[in-house]
Amino acid sequence: MDQRLFLKRYIDEHQNLFQRVALAIWNYAELRFEEWESSKLISGILEEEGFAVERGIGEMKTAFVATYGTGKPVLSFLGEFDALSELSQAGGTAEQQSIVAGGAGHGCGHHLLGTASLAAALATKAYMEQHGVVGTIRYYGCPGEEGGSGKTFMAKEGAFAGTDTAISWHPGTYTSVWTAETLANIQASFAFIGRASHAAAAPHLGRSGLDAVELMNIGSNYLREHLIDEARVHYAITNAGGLSPNVVQPKAEVLYLMRAPTLEQTKAIYERVKNIAKGAALMTDTTLEIRFEKACSNFVRNYVLEDVMNEELIAVGPLSYTEEEHRFAETIRQTFSEEDREQTMVELANLVENPGQEWLGQLRHKALIDEMVPVSKKRTLLAGSTDVGDVSWIAPTVQCYVTCFASGTAFHTWQMVSQGATTTAYKGMSHAALIMAATAVRLLHDPDLVRQAKEEWEERFANLQYVSPIPNGVKPAPMQR
Ligand SMILES: [Zn+2]
Questions:
Q1: How many CA atoms lie within 13 A of 198 on its CB side?
Q2: Strand partners, 84
Q3: Per-residue confidence (pLDDT) for residue 41, from 0 to 100
Q4: 25 Cα to the center of ligand 1, angstroms
Q5: Angstrom distance (rounded) from CA 381 to CA 470
Q6: What is the pLDDT of residue 236?
Q7: Span from the CA of 268 to the centroid of ligand 1 (angstroms)
Q8: pLDDT reported for residue 162
Q9: How many CB atoms lie within 10 A of CB 302?
Q10: Ligand 1 center to residue 244 CA distance, Å?
Q11: CA–centroid distance for 293 within its chain
Q12: Tell me, what is an example of a GO biological process annotation in this record (predicted)?
C-alpha cells in the first residue's frame, strides 16, 4: 500500500482521539511552564502506545521526551501545548466573549500543534511496525514556547542531542513549507528600587522607581531610530509601583523583549538597552536590578528537507471545506479591518518568489486559503521568533504551515482562539500530521536524504557553533502574576 495512504488511514481512523486531545488542551489553556494537564495527556498517550517517556528536563517538569524504536536515523517531532494570557474566548463564535474573565486562551494554536505532532509520531510508529522499518522516532513535549523559550532551555540541557532531523509545523492561514528565517531574541526584566515618600508633603525625600521606568522607556524609544530595520524592541510595565499618586513609587519594573536577525545583533541591542537602564537609574538616584529571563536563536532553513516536505505536501493534496466552514470563515473575517484582511496577502507576496497580481487577486477573495503556496529559495525574514530556532542550530529542521484559520486572522487574537475549536482547525491539524508523518517515512526509507540534509547543515554551520543564548544559572520563568 502507498505509504501516504497508510498514514492517512491511520490518522483518519484516530480522528476522534486527536480531536478530543486538541479540544482538551484548548480547554486547559495552560500558561508557560504550567502545562500540567496538557503535558500529562500527551505523554500519557505516547506511553500507552509503547513509547518510553522521560518526564521533566532541567527545571521544567512539563517538558518530556518520548522515544520509540532503535538505531538510525533519529527523527524528532516537536510538540507545543502552551496558551497565552488574557485571551480566554468561547470557541466557534464570531463574537468576542471570554469563558473566564482574565483567563488564558490558545491564541497561537499550540493545542493543534502539539496534537498534530502526536498524531504524526503515532502514525509513523504504526507504519514502522507494519513494515518492519528500522529507526528511532522521538516526540519532544516542549513547554513554554510563548515568552518562555522552553526548547532553548531543553537545548541547554542537551535534550536534542542525537537528533538527525527535526520536524514540526505551525497552524496558520495558508499551507506551505516554512521557508522564512526568524529573529533571535532576549527577554530581560529591569527593576528600579528607590524610596517611598509623601508625594505632596515630602517629594524631595522620595526616589521614584516609576520615573526610572518612564525615562528608560523614553531612552529606548529614541534608540529605535538607530537600530537596523529588522530589529524590534518592545516592553511591558509589569510593576508600575502602586496605585497611589500621593506616594512616590518606591519600586517599578519593566520587561523588555529585544529581537534581531542574529543572536550577536540581539546581544548588542541588549547591551545598549542595559546602558539606557543604567542612565535612568543614575538620573533618578534609584538602584537597578536586571534579571535575564530567556532568549532564543534565529531559525535556520534546510533546503533539502524543505524540498522533501514540499513534495509530500503536494502529494497529500489540498484541503477542502464545507459550505458551513466557508461561511463561518467569512463571518470571522467581518470582524477584521480591511488592513487585517490584507495581512495574509502581504505575507504571501513577501514569501513567494514571483507571486503575480493575478494569483494574489484570486486568493484575496478566499476566506479559507485551500491551495498550497509554492515554496521558494528567496530569503525572507519573519518578524517574530520561535524557540524552534535553537533546534535548527543543533540538527537540520523543517516545518510547515497549514491552514487552520480564516485568511487574515492575526496571531494572538480572540479570533484565533475561537477558530481553534472548529472543524476547520481540526482538518488543518490532521493535514499537518499527515505531511509530517509522510516526510518522516520518506526519510526513514531514504537515508541518503538524511545525509544530504546533514551535509547542507554542516556546510551552513561550518564557522558557527551553537552556544546557548541563555546564561548559566537562569531558570525557566512562569508568567508573573
Ligand atoms: Zn506559536
A1: 3
A2: 105
A3: 98
A4: 14
A5: 23
A6: 95
A7: 26
A8: 97
A9: 22
A10: 37
A11: 17
A12: folic acid catabolic process
Strands (E), 58-118: 60-70, 74-80
Q: Provide the terminal-to-terminal Cα distance of the chain, rounded to the nearest Å.
A: 53
Query: Ligand 1 (ion): which residues have CB within 5 A?
Result: 108
Ligand 1 centroid – CA 170 distance (Å): 7
84 C-alpha to center of ligand 1: Å?
10
CA of 146 to the centre of ligand 1 (A): 7
Give the Å distance between the CA of 112 and the centre of ligand 1.
10
What is the 23 CA–ligand 1 centroid distance (Å)?
Answer: 17
Instruction: Give pLDDT, residue 359.
Output: 86
Strand segments, DSSP code E, in 297-347 are none
CA dihedral 174, 404, 417, 231 (to 10 degrees): -30
Ligand 1 geometric centre to CA of 193 (Å):
35
Domains and CATH numbers, the chain: 3-181+298-460 (3.40.630.10), 184-296 (3.30.70.360)
Burial class (CB in 10 A: 0-12, 13-18, 19+), 147: buried
- 171: which 3 cell numbers? 497552524
- Tell me how far the alpha carbon of residue 110 lies from the centroid of ligand 1, in angstroms: 6
Q: Is 462 helix (H, G, I), strand (E, B) or coil?
A: coil
Which pLDDT score is estimated for 56? 97
Alpha carbon of 114 to ligand 1 centroid (Å)? 11
